[in-house]
Each structure stands twice: as structure tokens, then as C-alpha cells.
Amino acid sequence: MLINRSIQTFHRPASRFRLSSPSITHRLLTSGPGNSELVISPKDLQSLVQSDEQAVSIVDTTWFMPNSSRKSAEEFFKQRIPGSQFLDLDKVASSHPLGLKHMMPSAQTFAQACGSMGIRPDSHVVLYDTHGVFSSPRALFMFKAFGHQFVSVLNGGLPRWATEGYKIDANPPATIPSVSYPTPSVSSGVTRDYEFMVSNARLDAKGDPTSSIVLDARPKGRFLGTDAEPRPEIRSGHMPNSVSLPFNAFLETRDGKDGAKYTVIRPREEIQSVLEDALGADLVQDIIDGQRSVTTTCGSGMTAGVLWLGLKLLGAKHISLYDESWTGYADPSRKSNIVA
């Protein structure tokens, strides 16, 4: 039975925080570095939007693989969390000489996109996708890279929201008045480029403490070179000294409404266990303590965000994302060293 838990208003003007009793907003505002929880539940989101302690902006960041016939923008217009806006990660992006998609946008492009969605620097932005957890961590990475303080992923996304009985909006999306979002600066070292990855690939990931440990989020078959890439011009395989850690190892699949399945990010202790199986307990502790750095990568920079999120939940201090990922590294024009 669908419980009609409607949400009336999302973009309330930000007000002075009234924290006289422990609330979801209080918990989110006092949860440590960055001052927001990176992952929240549908119940948390409902509490946030019903409170007048902070302006909340909800954003659909759904993205589909290039070999999929599904269109995220079209699906957003058909159904969404009430009051949400749509962020096209392929459009809010920088151009690339190799034609790569969803590269990190310029600060100006990011600020314009935020302003057009009514997002202010003090807004609490909640990001979701229709897979459960898939592309929303990449959007979270982008917001954090530009220093946005209050931003979270809705764990389980739209499917979990619907499964738990909250209202789905199928009416035409409302237009949100645009605001001014100051041009931010990007945090240093959040992304890695091709030259860094080539140089780093010559180092022993586990034995050389100066190297960055490269975690590859693609499926194991593509990492090993036994399965084809979804982009036919790109051969499969992996970078020397990288480690295979498929992004879905950090995810749990659940049953949703009408037999549909969706994913959620695993609890911290399970993420740590998965990471220890891949790297060993000592190396994982070095990562958490900030003694070793990690670079996440995938096919195009999208699901690398899932690994990035898992590492952030563990409290890892030095995490970067290779923006071009395998599509850039293995581009035929570059003649990179590929292990297969």
C-alpha cells in the first residue's frame, strides 16, 4: 500500500538554525568534516524538507551507460521526487580533446548549473538516481570538489523512496527561480590526469609508499581483458599495478516495488571488509590514517564515484578520481601500456 507522504515545499529561504532538540538537521549539520552526512535515507530526506532550519534542493543525477537505450532526462519528466530538479552530468561538464563525456566542469559552469536549479552555497543538496546508487556518487564528488558544504546522496535513490511509500510526482516539473551562486574554486588534487596515471603506473602500488593505489571500479572481466568494453573503439585490460575492485562490491541489492531491484551503499564495516579483502588490512589502515593515497577509476569516471564515496565513508583522507578513467587511458591515439 502506497503511503501518501507528500512534500509541500523544498526551497524555503535559509533561516537561522533552531536546534533546540536533536533533529535530523542537527545531526546532518554536526556530523564532522564537511558538516553533512554523505549518505541519508528517505526518512532523513523527508525530515529535512519538513523542517524550516535549512533550504533543501533535491537533484536527480541519473545517468545511463552509452549502450543503454534509456534516457535519463525523459524519465525525469515522467516521474521524480516532488520538487526535484534534473542535473545532466554529460552537459554540466568540460569539453575534452578526445571527446570524453562528463568531465569535471569548470567552476563557472558548475556555479551556473547550481544557480539555475535554485541552489545556494548554504543549501543542503540531496542527490539521487533511479538505479538506487550508481551515478549520484559522481555528482556528490563534483559538489564536494567545488567545496559545497551541505550535500548528500539519497541511499537507494528513487526506487527506495517509492518502495518506502513516499510520493512520486508525475506532473510536469515545476520551474525553480534561478539564484546567484558564487564561482567556487576546485579543491587541490581531487582529480588526476593522464600524465599522472602513466607515471604512477610504473610504481609498485603496494610496496612503494609514494605511489597512489589505483582502484579500478569496472567489472572484473573488463579489467582482465576477457570482456569487451561498452565503447567498441576501446580495448579492455587494465593499467599496470592497478587493483580490481568492481564498484558493486560496495553496494547491496534490494528488492523494490513491483519486483524491481535497486542498490544501496553498504554499511561502513562491510565496505572496510571488502577493501581489506582486496588490499589487506594493514594497507587499508594506512589509507584510513592518511599514510597512503588512493585514486579511483572506472570506464569513464562515473562509477569511480561509488568507490570514492565508500572510501570517504571510511574516513580516508587522500582520495582522488581519475576523471578520464579507462576511456581516456586506453584511447587508441595514446598507445598506453595496457595489461590484458
TrEMBL record:
- Keyword Repeat present in the record's keywords: the answer is yes
Taking every annotated instance into account, which residue ranges of this chain make up the domain Rhodanese?
Answer: 52-170, 213-335
Note the Pfam families from the entry.
Rhodanese (PF00581)
Please state what the protein is called: Rhodanese-like domain-containing protein
What Gene Ontology terms describe what this protein does at the molecular function level? thiosulfate-cyanide sulfurtransferase activity
Residues in a coiled coil are none
PROSITE patterns linked to this entry: RHODANESE_3
The membrane spanning regions, by residue number, are none
Q: Which InterPro entries match?
A: Rhodanese-like_dom, Rhodanese-like_dom_sf, TST/MPST-like
What keywords does the record list, in alphabetical order? Repeat, Transferase
Any one cellular-component term (Gene Ontology): mitochondrion
Q: The organism sits in which domain of life?
A: Eukaryota
**Organism ancestry:** Eukaryota, Fungi, Dikarya, Basidiomycota, Agaricomycotina
